[in-house]
């Protein structure tokens, strides 16, 4: 990672297979893909807070696109439960309930722990290097006090683990769970809390490198338990974000 100052580009340089546009897609669809990634990153990185209202007209002006195009992007984000569309009120960044938060972490334990047991038996040296690079970038972001970038990289690390385990259906599911976990941290986490401990990811890579399936799965469970234990319910009022400021790097 060479530049943390432009979040959409720095944190999503290589979109995953679920969101990467096909090369022969129409120009308008490619533009919507880019806007989708910009808004998704802003949500995951906590630059857009849970409950923040997303006015169609303001977004259309910020991104230089029609309201119809923005509406399609918002519908896509709503399908992934990153935003909520309410008739008569419009779009807002989703605010997960406490029950939803518990369910998401239960789902992560069920999937990610099983995937770690599988991954430990098949991971390759080049893949271990990729994971160490992600963990290193995350630590650099933390050291540079770039919390939003570190949040994105932490989610990317977990999503990449799932991809390497070889089940793409579960990998997409884990990616969505990680994105929703970022919302949970924004609502129920304490100031400065990224969820993942600074060196946890490196320790997990060590276990994967050793081929220790049982310990890798157990470590992932403890890791997710620790994140969930760090949360506390803290209701906050909805806010009106400055969309021009948040997406100032888009153009």
Model description:
Pfam families: FCD (PF07729), GntR (PF00392). InterPro entries: GntR_C, TF_FadR/GntR_C, Tscrpt_reg_HTH_GntR, WH-like_DNA-bd_sf, WH_DNA-bd_sf. It comes from Halopseudomonas sabulinigri. This is DNA-binding transcriptional regulator, GntR family. GO terms for molecular function: DNA binding; DNA-binding transcription factor activity. The protein is mainly alpha-helical. The chain has two domains: about 25-95, Arc Repressor Mutant, subunit A; about 100-230, Four Helix Bundle (Hemerythrin (Met), subunit A) (Up-down Bundle). Helix content is about 60%, strand content about 5%. The chain is built from eleven helices and three strands; from the N terminus they run ααβααββααααααα. The chain has a three-stranded antiparallel beta sheet with strand order 1-3-2. α2 (about 25-45) packs across α4, α6 (about 125-145) packs antiparallel against α9 (about 200-210) and α7 (about 145-165) runs antiparallel to α8. The radius of gyration is 18 Å and the shape is globular. Residues about 1-20 have low confidence and may be disordered.
Please give a quick description of this structure:
The protein has 251 residues and is mainly α. The protein is built from eleven helices and three strands.
- Rg to the nearest angstrom? 18 Å
Indicate how many domains the architecture comprises. 2
How many distinct beta strands?
Answer: 3
Mean pLDDT across every amino acid position: 85
Which regions contain 5 or more consecutive residues with pLDDT less than 50? 1-21
Looking at this structure, what is the CATH superfamily of the largest domain?
Answer: GntR ligand-binding domain-like
Q: State the CATH class of the largest domain.
A: Mainly Alpha
Classification by helices and strands = mainly alpha
InterPro entries: GntR_C (IPR011711), TF_FadR/GntR_C (IPR008920), Tscrpt_reg_HTH_GntR (IPR000524), WH-like_DNA-bd_sf (IPR036388), WH_DNA-bd_sf (IPR036390)
Biased composition (Basic and acidic residues): 1-15
Region (Disordered): 1-27
Protein name: DNA-binding transcriptional regulator, GntR family
């Amino acid at each position: 990672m060479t530049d943390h100052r432009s979040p959409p580009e720095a944190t999503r340089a290589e979109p995953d297979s679920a969101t990467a546009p096909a090369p022969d897609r129409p120009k308008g669809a490619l533009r919507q893909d880019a806007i989708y990634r910009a808004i998704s990153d802003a949500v995951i990185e906590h630059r857009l807070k849970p409950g923040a209202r997303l006015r169609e007209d303001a977004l259309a002006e910020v991104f230089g696109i029609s309201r119809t195009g923005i509406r399609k992007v918002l519908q896509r984000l709503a399908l992934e439960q990153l935003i909520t569309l309410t008739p008569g009120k419009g779009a807002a960044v989703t605010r997960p309930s406490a029950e939803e938060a518990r369910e998401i972490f239960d789902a992560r334990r069920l999937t990610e722990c099983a995937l770690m047991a599988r991954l430990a038996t098949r991971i390759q040296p080049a893949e271990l290097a990729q994971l160490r690079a992600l963990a290193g970038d995350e630590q650099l972001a933390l050291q540079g006090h770039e919390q939003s970038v570190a949040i994105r990289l932490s989610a990317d690390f977990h999503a990449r683990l799932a991809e390497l385990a070889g089940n793409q259906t579960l990998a997409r599911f884990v990616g969505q769970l990680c994105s929703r976990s970022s919302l949970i941290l924004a609502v129920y986490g304490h100031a400065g809390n990224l969820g993942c401990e600074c060196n946890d990811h490196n320790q997990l890579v060590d276990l994967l490198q050793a081929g220790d399936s049982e310990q890798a799965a157990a470590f992932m469970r403890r890791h997710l338990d620790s994140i969930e234990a760090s949360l506390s319910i803290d209701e906050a009022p909805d806010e009106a974000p400055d969309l021009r400021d948040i997406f100032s790097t888009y153009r």
